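Form 7-S
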Amino acid sequence: MSPCTQQPARWLRVGVPPATHSRVRGLTLVELVVVLTILVVLATVALTSITGRVDQQRYEGTRRTLDHVRDAVVGDGQTRQADGTPVLSGFIVDMNRLPVATVDADDASLVTLSELWFPPAGVALFALRDGLDASIAAADQDPNPGIRVPCGWRGPYLRLPTGSDVLRDSFGKRLVSPADAATEDDGENYAHLRQIDDTPAEEGDTVAIIRSLGANRLRDALDVDYDEDLEVVIDPLSYRVDRIVVNVTVRYDSARPYDEDDRLFVRMYEPDPATGLVRAVRVQRPVGSTTTLIEIPDGGLDDMGGDLVGSVVVQATFVTDPDDSSANAPETNFGSRVIRAYIGRDDDGNNTLDDDLTPPTTTSSNGRPDVFGVSDPYYLMAQPGLNVVNLTVDVTTEDPQTLPEG
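Output:
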């Protein structure tokens, strides 16, 4: 039997039908468009979700960066002392001022907050300085032990990413300002460092507002979601010490009774904002002036005359508010102060205050007042607003303790 006659029988034997020709149906154009549309929608949703999450992380990172800047300047404000007052720290405590805008080391067309991570030119590094520090005027130096003023730059207060010396938000934008405020715009040349009145900070201006423009990097009040601007505001008025009232109890004994030429000197030692060293501010009052609050003499005295043996309380006030016409001390911010009271003598007898707060004329060779009593130093962590200090001076000797040359 030939192969040709055997083939049909083999198919029949295995029960398999002979091969047939069929056509496989594919996707129509409409179906393909529908599938592609679904894929595009899914990809868009996924991309939007990822982009939104990235913007959220950058937005939150920017907020943390601004919080770190505030903490570097004035502390976090969360840590409290036993009496409930905040524990003060940061640049403002060491330098007695807020940071100012400084010209960028690599681009003179920009100003930065580099004082927070680079020591400013001409500013001393942090140290505990005593009452004989060379930065204190000779007439205000204090050789008595106990004066230790913490002052000077002790940064970096703000730690930047490793290898970086620029401050950026988490969207990658540098937080700087144009050195010339006239060139500012609402986009790439926006002034991120600003004064408290929201004008651009130029070189030497106090920086009170640090602002990021969000994801779109545009200044727009109508921004929403992660395009909204973020900022931290450090209002100088919130950290100003307006008044330090010093109540001094002066105690006389029979060895050294009250003298009508006695004068109260109160010195306040604090950081000098310009140099980081120590400056001294003085207030002086006649002991028998109308500032006397309480008289507790042992015998009857008329108008503070005669031999006073007992105690008087004299009030001396440092007014630091430059808007106050009675201000007698430089504008000062909160932080460490050392205050000390002295009883000296007004040898010229005019019982008046000198406009420049210099000591009265004395017979001392160094031009300082003869001192008959000194209080212990009072360490004050000055708070915004009103501060009250109570001191005691014992006047127990007739021989003046003339302060030596420093």
